[in-house]
Amino acid sequence: MQNIRVEESRIAQPIGATLDRFIKNNQDHFQYASGELSQLLRDIALASKVVNREVNKAGLIDIMGSLGSQNMAGDSQQKLDVLANIRFTRALMKGGEACALISEEAESYVDLNNEGRYVIAIDPLDGSSNIDVNVSIGTIFSIYRRKSPVGKPIQDIDILQKGSEQVAAGYILYGSSTMLVYTTGFGVNGFTYEPSLGEYFLSHPNMRMPEDGKIYSINAGLANSFSESVKQYVQYCKDQKYTARYIGSLVADFHRNLLKGGIYIYPATAKDPNGKLRLMYECNALAFIAEQAGGKASTGHERVLDIEPRNLHERVPFYVGSKKMVEKAEQL
Ligand code: AFP
């Protein structure tokens, strides 16, 4: 009897549209040939399912730990970082819609298909120092239209585009459940992965970031090397009795603040005078999502999406989250 009730209540639960159906139903919003962008999003979703499977097996098979090498950003490369990079590169290569891929794991961009119309920037697995300790990690991606003619080799103008030129961006959070959150510039929607069905279902339609919040996320261990203004803002948060939460996985910290309201800050420090985070495959995507959800993203001085990138692996100080909190941090 008990079991029947549980089953009945499960059947009564409304489940959202699958990611595929949602993408299809919403593709008319998109001003360009929409089928191609839809295919790209599907390719990314498919690769994320493979990565999710691998992440979930970490600990059982030998894919945890460091490779003993460093990536372009100077971080130690984990086996799963490299594996995730291979999965996403392969999916985008096979899909055929992308002409180039910019990745945290590769020094230069990867040429994919001259016939492709899109450039992808990706951090295949962010927060990799958290892999070995079973803490949430993520994938971050940005999608741009190429500017040079299709069919010709790609050029710098295709690669070094401002964040405001993104046509879509998103992240996958491998956490207590796996979620894919993305925007094509018409709001932000979140999908939760149902592993037994192998599908993402719409679980968080039209996500909005609270205008104000009470959570601040910053690596307090670096406090001695913060500028006076950042120290003042942290002191302000303490005076307001805000809650400090810092996971050390940007996607996870961002996602929590998106749902609950809050600010994430990676400021300039003595060691990293431009901050630690990478403009092209970390900050731009989250800045686009934050703005689409009613939040804000800034370097402390300027809008992240307005920065002209000078190179693929450029770093910027990053303040992102609830609009009022970012504005207050900027004031100081
Ligand atoms: P890793 O991928 O090297 O773990 O870096 C993660 C990250 O880019 C971002 O996800 C974190 O928020 C931030 O760095 C943490 O950096 P600190 O350890 O310096 O606070």
Number of helices: 9
Distance between the termini: 61 Å
Structural class: alpha+beta
Helix residue percentage = 25-40%
Written overview of the protein:
- With 332 residues, this protein is of the alpha+beta class.
- It contains 9 helices and 15 strands.
- The chain has helices at 2-12, 19-26, 34-57, 79-95, 156-159, 228-239, 250-260, 279-292, 323-331; strands at residues 66-70, 76-78, 98-103, 110-111, 118-126, 137-145, 166-174, 178-183, 188-194, 199-204, 215-217, 243-244, 263-266, 296-298, 318-321.
- The longest helix is centred in the first third of the chain and has 24 residues, at 34-57.
- Mean pLDDT is 90; it is low at 9-14.
- Residues 75, 126-129, 219, 248-250, 253, 276-277 line the site of 1,6-di-O-phosphono-alpha-D-fructofuranose (AFP).
List keywords for this structure.
332 residues, 15 strands, 9 helices, single chain, 23% strand, binds 1,6-di-O-phosphono-alpha-D-fructofuranose, 8-stranded mixed β-sheet, globular
List the SSEs and their pairings.
Layout: H1 2-12, H2 19-26, H3 34-57, E1 66-70, E2 76-78, H4 79-95, E3 98-103, E4 110-111, E5 118-126, E6 137-145, H5 156-159, E7 166-174, E8 178-183, E9 188-194, E10 199-204, E11 215-217, H6 228-239, E12 243-244, H7 250-260, E13 263-266, H8 279-292, E14 296-298, E15 318-321, H9 323-331
Parallel strand pairs: 3-5, 11-12, 11-13
Antiparallel strand pairs: 1-2, 3-4, 5-6, 6-7, 7-8, 8-9, 9-10, 13-15, 14-15
This protein binds 1,6-di-O-phosphono-alpha-D-fructofuranose.
1,6-di-O-phosphono-alpha-D-fructofuranose binds next to helix 7.
